[in-house]
Design a protein that fits this description.
The protein is built from 2 helices and 6 strands. The chain is an alpha+beta fold. The strands form 2 sheets. It has a 4-stranded antiparallel sheet with strand order 2-3-1-6.
């Protein structure tokens, strides 16, 4: 089983490879997706990482609140989108 991790408060210049390197000490990183603004293409400072459950939970515990490139990371399990609007 795998877990999707939400990571926010990322510096705008960060690349997917840097996020993979940050999370990989905790286990295999299956995918990294940094989110960009649809209109401008500018990074929005958050993204999603997919890892195995155990590795992902360890990464969340270790990296939540950790300072990275001068910013305190927000790291938790991603929740599904709400369809109630």
């Amino acid at each position: 089983m795998s877990i999707t991790i939400y990571v926010a408060n990322l510096p705008k210049h960060i690349k997917e490879q840097q996020i993979q390197a940050l999370f990989s000490p905790y286990g295999d990183v299956h995918s990294v997706k940094l989110i960009n603004d649809i209109d401008t293409g500018e990074p929005l400072g958050y993204g999603f990482i997919e890892m195995d459950n155990n590795a992902g939970n360890q990464a969340i515990q270790a990296l939540s609140g950790k300072e990275f490139e001068g910013q305190s990371l927000q790291v938790n399990q991603a929740r599904g989108r709400s369809t109630d609007r």
